[in-house]
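Tokens as discussed.
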């Protein structure tokens, strides 16, 4: 995979976008120390290169009634290869699953899941996740306190 060369100005633009996704071109140009036209061209180039994947709004789960966050470790049955695509597709369709990673080690997948309360989490684990073909075991860890939650990447080069 070819990594595009980023100069200091590109890094300024990306850093500002990570913290201020709704910034106007004028605000972005000021942060990057460029004219608005130059900044707009660079911003579009960074998007075209795929460095900016999407823009999103982060909602407050607690204030929306989703008081439980859990990290769920999923172990698939041995020889589960034929179940990988259906499992991944189904997990992608579940609104409760915020993130899903295929991992090395004792588990096959780690999911970040949100739920209204512990009962809703239990219903999801037992009634949905454990019912999927190929799923052998599920272990969950309930988050007690969010210490840091960010999608910002280090841009220090």
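Sequence:
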């Amino acid at each position: 995979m070819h990594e595009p060369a980023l100069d200091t100005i590109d890094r300024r633009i990306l850093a500002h976008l990570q913290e201020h996704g709704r910034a106007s071109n004028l605000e972005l140009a000021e942060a990057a120390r460029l004219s608005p036209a130059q900044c707009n061209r660079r911003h579009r180039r960074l998007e075209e290169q795929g460095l900016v994947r999407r823009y999103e709004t982060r909602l407050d789960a607690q204030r929306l009634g989703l008081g439980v966050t859990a990290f769920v470790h999923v172990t698939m049955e041995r020889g589960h290869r034929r179940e990988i695509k259906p499992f991944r597709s189904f997990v992608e369709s579940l609104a409760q699953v915020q993130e899903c990673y295929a991992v090395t080690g004792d588990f096959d997948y780690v999911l970040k899941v949100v739920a209204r309360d512990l009962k809703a989490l239990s219903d999801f684990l037992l009634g949905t996740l454990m019912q999927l073909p190929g799923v052998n075991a599920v272990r969950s860890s309930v988050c007690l306190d969010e210490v840091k939650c960010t999608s910002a990447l280090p841009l220090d080069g």
